[in-house]
């Protein structure tokens, strides 16, 4: 009986010590041939440049044929499998019409043939083939085994081939593979070119060996000294960044400080030392226990907490070993930091004037390092997956934060193109400054109001400087997330008041607490099997009335005498959610009135993000004062695609016809009922999408302050009449590629080509 899972585990265990795609291929053919008791097992990998399948590894065919046998896709049995991406099981290979004989393999001795395609994310990687001398079909069980092996090993093989460049004939001057490309998830927008500085695990506490303490008191003293030194280093890092970061982002250093000052960290480590462990072993045991609690949780913020704990543990461990790695790293050229789990203290080690980009092998768009990158105004790409440090250390890299792509050692053509785009972008941004005080109005008079998205106080000034006409989306959950406990009502009042005052009399649309999915609070943990369809948005706040009433009261008090507060409800999926909120709003107003605080009742709107809200549009339009289409979640739910999942990120596109037609319907229903509608999120920053939103008749857009001038330029360059024609044409198209190609051509024709991001190189 074949045991594919057991064999797969063995392959993965042994693969941990390998360093090349060829070695992995050799391991696979060896294990599969043995498990199936076959005469031959071979792996052919696709050379994308020549579109040929190359024999990469074999057990049973002539070893000299490895690397020499090449056949075009569609030729021979292997080529047929690759072309049709289907299994083949024949008893006499030489009788099949597609059979092709290669003398160098000496395969005339084998009759039975079983082959399966190796496919990774719809992309053909190669073929695995098994042969035997006996002229008989392979069994159903053997078919299933080969298919399972091919499917499970497609990902690792694809990644290793990409990193090793086994077919590349163009190699960089420093022995690195050229155009080593990785796709992740967006951490921060922007483009950069620089030299890679790898932040490795040289002082990884997890690798600290178990040792007994010879002198417990001496070990406790060593730990105490290392702990205090870590606190001093953290304070120094915070001071170095103080002139670069706003106060609310600097608060992230407070998260680290609270971990260092956590009495449980000290007490448990000391207890482990008393039980017989040395300081480093005791620290490792404590840190891992604390980190595992958070690591098991589903959301990005809580997992980031585990990373924070490990970063602090590593820092203390380095001090125990007497390693000084907290000083400023001397770099004198544009630098891109790359690492497995970057921390804010890692970033603080680099001179801000030379730091141009951040890349993490793990993490999400909501991790602390992504927040930091946005505050610094540098691009960041998260979650690119494992990478071999030897391939990239000191290499040149291109970071495209718009498309969440990183290319190490770009070839000359790509390097020049990105330098051109980066230069063009800087020039463009500089030239757009003059648009700040001009209206976002098309040449034929269609007026659009442009608002800023914010959640950090750091975003207030950029929004005002770039001409925002208000705040279209204030993410109230962010102040909750950077705290270690629920902020008090008065703390919330102070935060909200600063935003409302800064923009008065311009409107500020404050979204009520929107947590759940990929945004949970570090101090209010709960786990769900499917968090994006679970306890999130207004569902969470209505179920936690005390928290909700407090937030509503804080918003009302913060908006006193200003008259610019508007309340936005996230993740509305039912009509009774609006009714329930209206009741809570009246309750909050009544409570404040009893306390002698007179407040005005603000307008209330619903975010249109989920399919059920689409169905209930007509009813919702009679219950709220405005609609806001949250394009990020709207796209995610309409397409059933997790935008933070690199495996399906290619399917996440707001130009998908289903998304566009749905937005068009929301706008149409809103106009019918006289309900203002805005579009917020990344879609409002996409020049191509802006053309279609104009054509639909959207009169309000809310986006990041950074992209306000670009969107204004698009609006001021293309007539509303042209946009309407584009929308009419796009609404009949069947896929996003056709739609984007058409829109990019129009942008180019109107002199907006500089806004078009580089395509896949």
What does the model show?
By secondary structure, the chain is of the alpha/beta class. Helix content is 44%, strand content 16%. The strands form 3 sheets. It has an 8-stranded mixed sheet. An 8-stranded parallel beta barrel has the order 15-16-17-18-19-20-21-22. β11 (355-360), α11 (368-376) and β12 (380-382) form a beta-alpha-beta unit. α1 runs antiparallel to α2 and α5 packs across α9 (300-320). The longest helix is centred in the N-terminal third of the chain and has 26 residues, at 216-241. The chain is globular and about 95 Å long. Residues 168-176 and 298-302 have low confidence and may be disordered.
Features:
alpha/beta; 22 strands; single chain
Largest sheet: 8 strands, mixed
Query: What's the end-to-end separation, in Å?
Result: 46 Å
Question: pLDDT below 50 for ≥5 consecutive residues: which ranges?
Answer: 168-176, 298-302
Tally of contiguous helical segments: 27
- Broad shape: globular
Structural class: alpha/beta
The proportion of strand residues reads 15-25%
The Cα radius of gyration reads 29 Å
Widest beta sheet: strand line-up:
7-14-13-9-10-11-12-8
Say how many strands there are.
22
Which range best describes the helical content: under 10%, 10-25%, 25-40%, 40-55%, 55-70% or over 70%? Answer: 40-55%
Average pLDDT metric: 83
């Amino acid at each position: 009986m074949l045991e594919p899972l057991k064999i797969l585990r063995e392959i993965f265990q042994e693969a941990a010590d390998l360093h090349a795609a060829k070695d992995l291929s050799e391991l696979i053919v060896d294990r599969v041939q043995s498990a199936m008791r076959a005469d031959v097992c071979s792996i052919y990998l696709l050379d994308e440049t020549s579109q040929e399948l190359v024999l990469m590894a074999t057990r049973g065919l002539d070893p000299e044929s490895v690397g020499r046998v090449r056949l075009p896709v569609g030729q021979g049995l292997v080529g047929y499998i690759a072309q049709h991406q289907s299994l083949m099981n024949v008893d006499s290979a030489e009788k099949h019409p597609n059979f092709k004989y290669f003398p160098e393999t000496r395969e005339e001795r084998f009759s039975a043939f079983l082959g399966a395609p190796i496919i990774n994310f719809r992309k053909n990687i190669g073929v695995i083939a098994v042969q035997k001398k006996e002229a008989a079909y392979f069994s159903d069980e053997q078919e299933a085994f080969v298919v399972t092996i091919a499917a499970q090993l497609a990902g690792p093989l694809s990644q290793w081939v990409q990193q090793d460049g086994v077919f590349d004939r163009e190699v960089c001057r420093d022995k690195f593979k050229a155009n080593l490309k990785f796709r992740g998830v967006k951490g921060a927008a922007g483009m950069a070119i620089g030299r890679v500085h790898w932040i490795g695990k040289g002082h990884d506490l997890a690798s600290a060996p178990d040792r007994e303490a010879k002198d417990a008191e001496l070990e406790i003293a060593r730990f105490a000294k290392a702990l205090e030194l870590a606190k001093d280093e953290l304070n120094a890092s915070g001071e170095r960044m103080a002139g670069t970061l706003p106060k609310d982002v600097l608060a992230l250093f407070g998260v680290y400080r609270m971990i260092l000052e956590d009495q449980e960290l000290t007490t448990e480590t000391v207890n482990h030392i008393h039980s017989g462990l040395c300081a480093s072993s005791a620290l490792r045991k404590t840190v891992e226990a604390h980190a595992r609690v958070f690591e098991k949780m589903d959301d990005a913020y809580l997992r980031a907490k585990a990373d924070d704990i490990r970063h602090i543990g590593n820092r203390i461990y380095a001090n125990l070993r007497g390693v000084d790695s907290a000083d400023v790293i001397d770099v004198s050229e544009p630098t891109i930091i790359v690492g497995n789990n970057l921390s804010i203290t890692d970033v603080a080690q680099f001179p801000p004037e030379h730091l141009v980009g951040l890349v993490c092998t793990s993490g999400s768009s909501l991790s602390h390092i992504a927040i930091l990158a946005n505050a610094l105004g540098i691009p960041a790409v998260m979650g690119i997956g494992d990478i071999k440090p030897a391939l990239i250390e000191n290499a040149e890299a291109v970071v495209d934060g718009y498309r969440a792509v990183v290319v190490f050692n770009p070839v000359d053509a790509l390097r020049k193109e990105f330098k051109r785009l980066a230069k063009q972008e800087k020039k463009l941004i500089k030239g757009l400054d003059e648009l700040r005080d001009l209206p976002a109005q098309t040449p034929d008079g269609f007026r659009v109001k442009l608002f800023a998205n914010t959640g950090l106080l750091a975003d207030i000034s950029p929004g005002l400087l770039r001409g925002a006409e208000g705040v279209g989306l204030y993410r109230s959950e962010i102040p909750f997330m950077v705290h270690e406990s629920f902020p008090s009502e008065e703390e919330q009042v102070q935060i909200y008041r600063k935003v409302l005052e800064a923009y008065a009399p311009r409107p500020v649309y404050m979204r009520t607490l929107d947590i759940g999915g990929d945004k949970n609070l570090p101090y209010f943990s709960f786990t769900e099997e499917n968090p994006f369809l679970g306890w999130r948005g207004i569902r969470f706040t209505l179920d936690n009335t005390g928290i909700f009433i407090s937030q509503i009261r804080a918003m009302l008090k913060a908006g006193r005498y200003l008259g610019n507060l508007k309340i936005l409800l996230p993740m509305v999926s039912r009509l009774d959610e609006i009714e329930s909120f209206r009741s809570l709003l009246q309750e909050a107003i009544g409570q404040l009135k009893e306390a002698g605080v007179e407040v005005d009742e603000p307008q209330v709107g619903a975010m249109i993000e989920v399919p059920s809200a689409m169905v209930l549009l007509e009813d919702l339009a009679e219950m709220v004062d405005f609609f806001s289409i949250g394009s990020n979640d709207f796209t995610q739910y309409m397409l059933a695609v997790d935008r933070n999942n690199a495996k399906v990120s290619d399917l996440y596109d707001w130009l998908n016809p289903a998304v566009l037609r749905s937005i068009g319907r929301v706008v149409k229903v809103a106009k019918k009922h006289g309900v203002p509608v805005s579009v917020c999120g990344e879609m409002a920053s996409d020049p191509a999408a802006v053309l279609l939103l104009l054509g639909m008749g959207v009169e309000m857009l809310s986006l990041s302050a950074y992209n306000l001038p670009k969107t204004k330029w698009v609006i001021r360059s293309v007539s509303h009449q042209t946009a309407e024609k584009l929308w009419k044409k796009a609404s009949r198209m069947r896929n996003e590629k056709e739609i984007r190609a058409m829109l990019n051509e129009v942008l180019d024709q109107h002199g907006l080509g500089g806004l078009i991001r580089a395509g896949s190189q």
